[in-house]
Amino acid sequence: MKNLLIATDFSANATHAAEYGYALASQVKANIVLCNAFLVPAEIPEGGTLVWPQYEYEELQKNSADELKELEKALHHKVKGAASRPYITRISEDGNMPEVVNKAAKKENIQLVVMGTHGNTGINGALLGNHSRKMIDNAACPLLLVPPTAAIAPVKKIAFATDFKEPEKDLQAIFNLIPLLKLLNAELLLTHIYTEIDEAYDFKKNIEGFLLELSNKANYPHIYYRIVKSEKTGKGLDWLCRFGNVDMLAMVHRKHSFLDKILIGSNTQKMAEHIWIPLLVVPEK
User: Fold this and answer.
1) Does residue 105 lie within any of the structural domains?
2) How much is the pLDDT for 20?
3) Within this chain, do residues 119 and 176 fall inside the same structural domain, yes or no?
4) d(CA 245, CA 24)
């Protein structure tokens, strides 16, 4: 990983996510792009055409640039025990967050976008908030959502949660994660939440072949699996995040995927309120 983008609105949660992203960039020896999107209030003159006052644009852009500069200084001084000091560049542009972030990610060849969550309970604000949902839906590269409860510490184990209904796509998503895992020297824990005994039996039958193919193609030895029994998927993921000794939860986002069902299903609220570790959203290629 060469470049990591941290999206910020300068809120307390966004600043915590920036500190987490700084520590992660230090761990993998990546550069950082700090990115802020600001919106200029529009005026509607008599002609009916939207215009943006130049003086307001210049003032907002200056404020954004100044705050990014202060955030950069704070990150260099505040994050303790950083293995290396990441090189930081700054981008401030007008527009909505998803558009500005995706534009910057393409221009700067970003491999991972990091952003904070909103609200007082876990990642509830991120999953249900408009900006974050759009980021999840439109992200061109992996997106890391960091709740305010996430500990700033080296990542040693990432859980990849899936129903394994589309194994070939899961394999591709995991292959895309391998470079990050190697940089982190982290374990990958393949996780399946099941509700019925038969479902667990079928999973155990198929997982050995899946793991064999994965290990042969990925050339990465630190891959394991675990099944978790739960009456509801959200509760099973909640248990995994709290007691599974994992530092990050990774899920693939695609139409009608496991993650999509969690985002829009009845388990969304409970899952969002109880996830206290970062959520890594991997877009389907």
Assistant:
1) yes
2) 95
3) no
4) 18
Indicate left, alpha or beta for 276 from its phi (over 0: left) and psi (-120 to 50: alpha).
alpha
Is 152 a member of any domain? Answer: no
Q: The domain spanning residue 78 has which CATH number?
A: 3.40.50.620
Burial class for 106, CB neighbours closer than 10 Å (0-12, 13-18, 19+): exposed
Instruction: Give the domain extent around 104.
Output: 3-146
More confident residue, 248 or 269: 248
Number of structural domains, the chain?
Answer: 2
Q: Which of 85-99, 196-210, 248-262 reaches the highest mean pLDDT?
A: 85-99
CA gap 242, 174 in Å, rounded:
23
Q: Which residues contact 204 (CB under 8 A, 6 or more apart)?
A: 227
State the Cα–Cα distance between residues 279 and 183, nearest whole angstrom. Answer: 18
Dihedral (Cα; 222, 227, 230, 236), 10-degree rounding: 10
pLDDT tens per residue across span 24-39? 999 999 999 999 988 7
Encode pLDDT of 160-170 as tens digits. 988 777 778 88
